[in-house]
Structure prediction request, 1045 residues.
Amino acid sequence: MRAYVPSYQLISPATLGEALDVLARAAGAWQPFAGGTDLMVLLEAGKLPHKNYLNIWNLPELHGIEVTDAHVTLGALTTYTEVQDHETLREQFPMLCQAASETGGLAIQNRGTIGGNIVNASPAADSPPALLAYDAELEFVSAKGSRTIPYYSFHTGYKQMNIRPDELLRSIRLPRPATESQHYYRKVGTRKAQAISKVCFAGVARMDADRIADVRIALGSVAPVPLRCVQTEAALRNRRINAETLAIAKAALTAEIAPIDDLRSTRNYRLKVSLNLLEDFVLRLAPTF
Amino acid sequence: MNLVGKPIPRKEGRKKVTGQALYVDDLSFPGMLHGVTVRSSVPRGRIKNISFDQPPATAGGSDRNIPWNEFTIVTAKDIRDLKLGENYVALILNDQPYLADEVVNHPEEAIVLLAHPDKYLLEEARRHVSIEYEELPAIFSLHDSLAQKEIIWGDDNVFKKFLVDKGNVDDVWAKADFIVEGEYETGAQEQLYIENNGAIALANPNDGVTVWGSMQCPYYVHKALIKLFGLPEEKIRVIQTETGGGFGGKEEYPSMIAGHAALLAWKSGLPVKMIYDRAEDMVATTKRHPSRTLHKTAVNKDGKLLAMEIDFVIDGGAYCTLSPVVLSRGTIHAAGPYFCPDVRIKSTAVATNLPPHGAFRGFGAPQSIFALERHLDKVAKTVGLTPEEFRRRNFIHEGETTATNQTIREKVDMDGLLNRAFELSDYHAKRERFARENGSDRPSRIRKGIGFASFMHGAGFTGSGEVYLQSVVGAEATPEGLIRILAASTEIGQGTNTIFAQIAADALGLGYDLFEVAQPDTAQVPNSGPTVASRTCMIVGKLVESAVVGLKQTLLGSGLLKDQYTQAEFQRACGDYIEKFGRLQSFSKYQPPPNILWDDEKYQGDAYGAFAWAVYVAEVSVDLLTYEAHVDDFVAVQEVGRVINPVLAAGQIEGGIAQAIGMTLYENVVWENGRMKNGQMTNYIMPTAADIPPIRVYFEENPYAYGPDGAKGIGELPMDGPAPAILNAIENATGESFNQIPLMPEKMMEDLVGQG
Prediction:
């Protein structure tokens, strides 16, 4: 443990109201601490700059999965294990379950949360591409009330988010699809488990005969944020699957993502693999595949 | 003869799985301090100033001042001021300081040691030691070192050179039908034992120095501390605690951390514990030597090897450490298990400004064997033979000579190993099926391939090494008739305690539970040599056998035991003997087998008493969407003499293959200015169980006359074959020849996409 632990503080409010009051009183002084699976790594390495934390793990209002006819709503503290165990999520949102199953190991999956994965705002996070492709909405609460925004408007830059210091992410709402869709999720991390993705691709599409009636695509690790690729989607929507469609879609994706060289991989690799996965996703939609 | 060859449970297994085994970090002493190391942030430079600062008064206000007067602080100057011994880690060339004095030669070189009772405050203090440098130009690759882009060590950056000359290759080139050349490279690899390096020291002028630690070679540490403290050998005591893996990474490095803990203990007068965390262990301690090999091979049209010229270079890092010995083993293995009349091997270990590279399972051989076994697939292709047919025409046989002109006197059957490996892996049928599938009109995006490597690994120290070591093992009986084996050979997870007890029990015809292996402690056990070089079973195991037989002979000679005895009679005789004479002990010293002749000057002769022989087959799939290769199946057939414990032996092979798969496809050390940039297990991609195929292990047994119950060495062998077998399989799958490891997906993409 490289951190000087006595300089850190963690307080545990008993209720959501109490937690929101603490956040409202001194904006930015206390940062939420959920599953801690990222924060503990930084603490161990002596690289956790913020010193005061608000433990929200025990707040019941942030836990639980609720299913209605129109939506599945996940409490922000829903763990990866709970996601994988949930029947409706497995049936209708398989990419989210796959992302959860490929995040960390079992211990991390028991403790890490979907909400934490969102507000930690790593561009390499595994569940955001799936959530973006499923058109998730986020609900925030504060002492002043609550608000709901589409998830695609949440990440505004590298580690920049549409959230106020007095707010907590309360829940993630997923619209249940009315019709059968095709789902394609692929995390590329060189090793099969315990990896941080080099590229992460999530795509969901609905076909109308031989045309792509609707499609949503999001990628991780290829931009400063988990990226919903709306231009690529537009290039595919209402088109037949052929070489021309593929070429236009690839050009759109190339323009839309901004991969870089870093410790884990290279710009060229990320770009090429993103294009390959896009092609594989699209070709698999073809009725003749 | 009823325990050897059976899967007897591990001696210390129960203690390990129930948490009772004590590792160094489990130990604590009254008044103990914790110690940390402040390391260089530059690759090469002069130390201008060292200051002990305070944290800035931050907005949060919770950072406390650092009470520097409470800290024990040690620098190179203290080794002089305290009138201790020499500031170097005694090993081969004695060029590596314990603490950098005036200059640093690599990132993460130790400069200042700190000790304090509060380990959290200690970390805060470590962050506030500032060192100013005048930076000097540095080099980070063996290519730059060979080109002498900068002279950073000695006159020419060269730690060691070898030349092996058999016949005269220069006479051969003109008459060859084919000459095939190739270049091959391997990267650094981190050992990644589960337990990081750690030590505890007690040291003062009255009692001398005592160190407990995680290590492979207690007497290496002992020798190093004698020099560091300038004390007589009986004033230095080194005790090995339970050790969570080594793989070579605890061969020489423990001398460093033990010395650091002992310096802090000496100055403070208190016990000091130093335990590295994973991040420090990865960036600061040794790794496998990166290498570059050039091959030039002459072959006739019948596919017979005529001449091999090999130029093998390894990157030793900033100090010599064990590089000459690693180079030696890599050199001797560079021409493989083939007969070739004319061979020239030139090899060089060079200096760079990386942290020193060190021992790692295989010790240079995996590097040079990778080059050879990739190259021979290329040669076979050039000649127009299949890889196996080409090898069959050149395998070495009994009576033929190796590259060092060692005549093979054992029965060796590489053809038989190859046949069995091919049959078990269904090699031919798969080769045919993959060719059909990969060549079809609409091939899958997953390409399959199969490949193999054939190789050998010498057991024990090279050449006259074992003679110089003069290893000794003891055995001692208690009045109850229990027998303790006294050896400095360490249990590091590989099964030393268990096989020693099996060998000893069978030698006396007694039960396994009568035998116990003493904790290696230089005050209690003789020097049986280092736990390295696949020597523990074959060399030290033989000494264990002789030592316990010595006990029996003493008892027979005394008349207290008759020739045909029961276990109870033997135990009673021990008690009687001790009552009468006070003590029942027997020691056994290494005697070389007959006809072992080695010329250290010319590097000619009997390099090893025995070799283990093997053929490994790898089956892979390559995903053309992501350029990731996965090993799908692995067959390992080897002849290792007699197998002492089949479960432990298979475990050694499986573990070595998994580690080698990591070296081949996953583990890439990312360097930045000589510093490992991905020094954490999140970004240094060691494979997990999900990436490892079924590993099918088969032994052929051909007892070796001079090993205990016929056993030879086994520990390093499995590290040698997988890398070339896997890359040969990837060439079979993709048609592309890759000659560098680790072969990461990024590199595979560049080559595959580059070809259009």
Summary: The radius of gyration of chain A is 19 Å. The interface with chain B takes residues 1-7, 9, 41, 44-46, 51-52, 186, 188-196, 198-199, 263-266, 268-269, 272-273, 276-277, 280 of chain A (CB under 8 Å). Residues 267-285 of chain A form the longest helix (19 residues).
